[in-house]
Amino acid sequence: MTIEVTDATFDDVITNAGKPALVDFWAEWCGPCRMLTPIVHDLAEEYGDKVVIAKCDVDSNPGISFKFGIRNIPTILFFKNGEVADKQVGVVPKNVLAEKLEALM
Q: pLDDT value at position 50?
């Protein structure tokens, strides 16, 4: 299951998660973002409780988007121990994201 994170909940859900995390920065109006959504949901189903899979709407959460320098969407940030460990900009096949997640585990 994917979790919606906001400026207010980001630290609790991602930074203090105690496990690897993937955060999909997206917007409703973004076509490529909509293409990536089913891939992110599939990863959430496959990885279950091993990782945190979250989505962050950049339009509704400018603070966290600014903090991480999100300038293009979709952008996926990968976190390990609360720190950014990897980044992916644009739509990519599911296996690319899965490999990046595996590298964090």
A: 94
Whether the pTM exceeds 0.85: the reply is yes
pLDDT tens for each residue of 34-66: 999 999 999 999 998 999 999 999 999 999 999
Enclosing domain of residue 74: 3-104
Burial of 53 (0-12, 13-18, 19+ CB in 10 A): buried
How many domains does the structure of the chain reveal? 1
- Pair 2, 53: CB distance under 8 Å: yes
d(CA 45, CA 42): 5
Active site residues: 30, 33
Give the residues across from 29 on adjacent strands: none
CATH of the domain at 16: 3.40.30.10
Query: Sheet of 3-4: strands edge to edge?
Result: 3-4, 52-57, 21-26, 75-80, 83-89
